[in-house]
Amino acid sequence: MKLVPLADRVVLKQLEAEETTKSGIILTSSAQEKPQEAEIVAVGPGGVIDGKEVKMHVEVGQKVIYSRYAGSEVKLDGQEYIVVRQNDILAIVED
Amino acid sequence: MKLVPLADRVVLKQLEAEETTKSGIILTSSAQEKPQEAEIVAVGPGGVIDGKEVKMHVEVGQKVIYSRYAGSEVKLDGQEYIVVRQNDILAIVED
Amino acid sequence: MKLVPLADRVVLKQLEAEETTKSGIILTSSAQEKPQEAEIVAVGPGGVIDGKEVKMHVEVGQKVIYSRYAGSEVKLDGQEYIVVRQNDILAIVED
Amino acid sequence: MKLVPLADRVVLKQLEAEETTKSGIILTSSAQEKPQEAEIVAVGPGGVIDGKEVKMHVEVGQKVIYSRYAGSEVKLDGQEYIVVRQNDILAIVED
Amino acid sequence: MKLVPLADRVVLKQLEAEETTKSGIILTSSAQEKPQEAEIVAVGPGGVIDGKEVKMHVEVGQKVIYSRYAGSEVKLDGQEYIVVRQNDILAIVED
Amino acid sequence: MKLVPLADRVVLKQLEAEETTKSGIILTSSAQEKPQEAEIVAVGPGGVIDGKEVKMHVEVGQKVIYSRYAGSEVKLDGQEYIVVRQNDILAIVED
Amino acid sequence: MKLVPLADRVVLKQLEAEETTKSGIILTSSAQEKPQEAEIVAVGPGGVIDGKEVKMHVEVGQKVIYSRYAGSEVKLDGQEYIVVRQNDILAIVED
């Protein structure tokens, strides 16, 4: 069973606290809408969205920092996912 | 008697709690606007909506995760439906 | 005396509680902005509205589910009407 | 002395309570933004408004139902007027 | 010393209470955003504003009714002025 | 050290109270968003901003009335500046 | 490990209080959304964003004043960064 995102949506898997520490990202926990590190597990096809052509610039497997503000949480097969729009992804974290 | 959605609207039938468990999706119940799993029972024709051409990318029978935020609930012949815009559908759940 | 709607407006006549039961639609009464069943009694001409061409896709006599949110109530000759924009009509109810 | 409306504005003269009764329109008085019956006394020229061509579809002398929400009240020579945008006129009342 | 308005802005000089009475306009004083009568003392050049061509349709010396909502008050050489956008002018008052 | 504004931004230096009095502008001090007199010390290049071509119509050295609402205050070398968008400038004050 | 911003986003490193003093910028600390001085450490590629072509006009190494309002804070390898859109950068600080 898997999530196939529509349009410009991207499915993210949040990195666990331990992984987060390992990657060197320490996020302040005082605010609910602070960006978060996650791994991309599925990318929508893009296309014409709200009358505008949207190209996807992210790929499965990338680690990203995203703004949690517009994301929707889903649990599938015991794993939590976050579905965001590509535009809610702020930056890719490269090693 | 059936609902024929207009424009980019999609009629959804929420999956029962038991079905939800069977499919492996467990939704947190703490927030009212959390996404939800549902099955598509009718799809509008798309077309020019608010001056922009909208194509429909979903089909009857698909299981989807949607954002409950903008949906409208309707009861027809004892069955509850949710009418959402295509844009409120976040992802298709595939087996 | 009759109401001739402008632009993309549609005049609706709400179905009475008894009719509603007959048609099999049971609406939850807990929220003010829940969709409602009604019959179309007049349809505006459409045309260029807010700089965008709007075509009318509904007809007099159709039963529809609409979102009450943006509608305006009017009483004419002892009959209550609701004036909505076409976009506030969610779906047509077909037998 | 007279009011010459600019752009897509329309000057309305509200019909008195007695006239309202005569015309068969009874308005609920419980909400401030309910539509109201009025007679058109002046119509703006239309033209390019906010970058979009607007044509005027109403005429002096027509009785209309309008949404009071965006209207501005003015008193001129002891007569009250309402200045609305054409888009705030919901329907024309025809005999 | 004078105010030269930019873009689609218009500089207004509010008519005094006595003048207001003389012109026959009596404004209700219960609301802060009610329209007001004023005389135009300077008109901006119009042009491309927010990506849209705006032409100016008012002239210095005209008496106008405007919506006070978006206006800014300025005092220059002891005289109070109101700077509004042309779009905040509802109608011209002609004798 | 100097501020080089981006896009359609303009750097202003507020005129001191004494200068303000000398120029004849007296501003009401009761509201925080009232317009203010200032001198332009730097003008951005304009260009395509939010998809729209913006031309700059103001120059360094001009005295202007601006709406304080969207401005950002900065202190550089002991001098306070206000960074506004050109659109927040209401009018130029000419002698 | 580094942050690679997407679209029109820019990664900033806030200047320390001491650096801030050295550069002569003194920021009022009374408001949370006041602009701030920072150094650019990464610049997104620009491109078509929300249907509009955006070109990047800033470069790594520049000192800038930005509006903190829309920025997102991230900590990577013990260093705090701010991710903003180019449009949130008000001005470049040149020596």
Automatic annotation (TrEMBL), chains A, B, C, D, E, F, G:
InterPro entries referenced in this protein's UniProt entry, alphabetically: Chaperonin_GroES (IPR020818), Chaperonin_GroES_sf (IPR037124), Chaprnonin_Cpn10_CS (IPR018369), GroES-like_sf (IPR011032)
PROSITE patterns for the chain: CHAPERONINS_CPN10
Pfam family, any one: Cpn10
Keywords carried by this UniProt record: Chaperone, Cytoplasm
GO terms, molecular function: ATP binding; metal ion binding; protein folding chaperone; protein-folding chaperone binding; unfolded protein binding
Gene Ontology cellular-component annotations: cytoplasm
Superkingdom field: Bacteria
CDD domains in alphabetical order: cpn10 (cd00320)
KW Cytoplasm (keyword) present: yes
Transmembrane segments: none
Keyword Chaperone: yes
Location relative to the cell: Cytoplasm
Function recorded in the entry: Together with the chaperonin GroEL, plays an essential role in assisting protein folding. The GroEL-GroES system forms a nano-cage that allows encapsulation of the non-native substrate proteins and provides a physical environment optimized to promote and accelerate protein folding. GroES binds to the apical surface of the GroEL ring, thereby capping the opening of the GroEL channel.
Subunit structure: Heptamer of 7 subunits arranged in a ring. Interacts with the chaperonin GroEL.
Identification of the protein by name: Co-chaperonin GroES
Organism: Lachnobacterium bovis DSM 14045
Source lineage: Bacteria, Bacillati, Bacillota, Clostridia, Lachnospirales
